[in-house]
Prior knowledge:
Elements: H1 22-46, H2 51-76, H3 81-102, H4 104-124
Helix pairs in contact: 1-2, 2-3
Amino acid sequence: xxxxxxxxxxxxxxxxxxxxxxxxxxxxxxxxxxxxxxxxxxxxxxxxxxxxxxxxxxxxxxxxxxxxxxxxxxxxxxxxxxxxxxxxxxxxxxxxxxxxxxxxxxxxxxxxxxxxxxxxxxxxxxxxxxxxxxxxxxxxxx
Length: 142
């Protein structure tokens, strides 16, 4: 470091100013972008019947696509390091907000809905003859 830490905020994010940080950051952003897309496709297919969980995966997908794409663009076009830092912090903050603030009440409400529907389904078929259709034929000899 040849400058004060706050002086690096307004330096271009390139291989001359940040030789130890540029390559690992853009490679990690590219890998995480691919992982995010693959993970979304796998999880959305597994959870297709559970709408709130698919919505959570969509929020995480678009947060990842936007964050990692911005990091790649900022690395290619040598934006100020301040923008790179803001992008990383904002992306992480949105990930945490989506996963731990936005969706837990929605998922809890959905779990309650599933619990109620299972309970009423079990109550409906609790009696052993509940699944046997009554005969529509008339008995002879009456």
